[in-house]
Design brief:
Number of helices: 13
Strand content: 15-25%
Distance between the termini: 98 Å
Length: 513
Amino acid sequence: MFRFLGKESGVTLLDVLLVLLIVGMLIFGIVFALVSYTNIFSFINGSQVVRSVSSNIFKTVVVPVESHQQIIINLDNNEPFETIAITQKIMFPFSKEKKIATEWPKGKTGFLVKSYDGSTIEMLGYRYKTIAKTTAKNGYNALLDLTVNNIKRIDKDNINYPYLYVWLDYNQNAQVDKGELISLKDLGITSIDIGSMKVVNRRINSSVINREGSYFRADGSKGSILEVDLFQDPFYREFLTTINVPDKIKPIPNVQGTGLVRDLQEATAKSSALLSTVVNYYSHESLSQRYTMLNNLLFEWARSENMRFATHLSQFSTDRFKLELASDLKPDTYRSIHSEVSLVLNHLMVVEQFTGKRLLYVFAKEVLNTQTGEIELHLAISLNNEIIARNVVVANSNQQRQEVVISNDMLNFTNEQKIQINEEYEAVKKNIFAKLQAEKPDIQELIAEFKKDQYRWVDESLQNQIETGAYFIRERKTINLPRRRYLIECIKPGNIIDQQVRDCADGKIAKTW
């Protein structure tokens, strides 16, 4: 026991140690609760937790691969699955915006599809709408969505069996024609063994067989069912919507666009800047002049549709952060591009627009820095898988949205990347130049009109006054020109004399008061 003021306190050493232990546990619990609360708050708000002050979480990146995985049924046991090459330009709309050239099943192989009326179809693959109203990631997930009671088999007892067909595109026009949809029952297919589908990752032309399994016929034989990622080349495309082209600009040659841009007539109907650039291009006869002007024409043609990179960047904006390109990276005309980085980036975006290939990627993630308690935006921009820009931006403490401006000093292209981009840009340029030169349009009326517009007065009211003569007979206002004056003439109201008054008297300035 302890003694206090000569008296025994009745408190033992064990009691003291116990109290210290309880206090320590309370302190630890408070600290743990604070950290947990911070992490939970971060989780609720979609923020990742980091314990680094400034290092970017994006050390390396892996660009997402666009998938077009579909379920294919091979009806011929004697022939392996093959595809028709992309050069045949079989155009199919895997999206609602446009048709894209696609490698296509060849021979007695067709798509497994769902149809309730025997004519309209729903593809069983990527973007298939599941029962849960989500989008299937691939064909295999779409098949699993058709199963019942987690049994990885589809047979005649399955509620979906009567609505499953094989689409055999006999004429290879990528359209469902009469007689091309055959039900599983009519084909003698009694069941599909989804559980037998194994990962194989085997390449056929530019397409990839991801999984392969078996289906069974009524006679006991079996065939192969495949999940195939069909290769698409977005360079070849057909838009599913049209743009009205006014009669006035129909003399413009309808040069076929590629990738994300429309054909030239529709593009000029959308963009007056492109129209004037095209007319100016054809108003010159010199090939060297035209080739030089082609840079501006390509730039305006690419801008007639939303630039993919700028659109992609804006999609990563959040309630806390707004991402946008600086003015030096989104010039009004090609001639306003001044820095080398801006030129490289704009050439790269033009290549994206005309090839349809995605080359620039944005990676952004809100994270909570547990050392500072601040929300940070970790940002990376890559050219394919190579990072060309990194940044960490701290959110505003006053809850106002923080602007994150991507400027040319943030982007770091290697010399090899610059050379590669320039080569791809020149390839696009030469391709379009050859198409434009093959046309001999009769657009003299448009050329004359645009030349007249070049000399149009900015102030049309002033032009009208001069042309009618009203300008020369109107009352003139006396202009008080600078001249030497007496000081008394220049004194300001209130008998104020300042430097302006002295300058007025010296004749340096006019009297304006």
